[in-house]
Amino acid sequence: MIFDLIKNRRSVFPAQYNNKPIAKADIEKILEAANWAPTHKKTEPWRFRVLQGESQEKLGLFLSLKYLENDPNPKEFKAKKLIENPKRAGAIIAICMQRDPAQSIPEWEEVAATAMAVQNMWLCCTEMGIGCYWSSPGLVKHMNDFFEMNEGEACLGFFYMGYSDEEIPEGQRSPIADKVVWMD
Question: What pTM was computed for the model?
Answer without folding.
Answer: 0.94
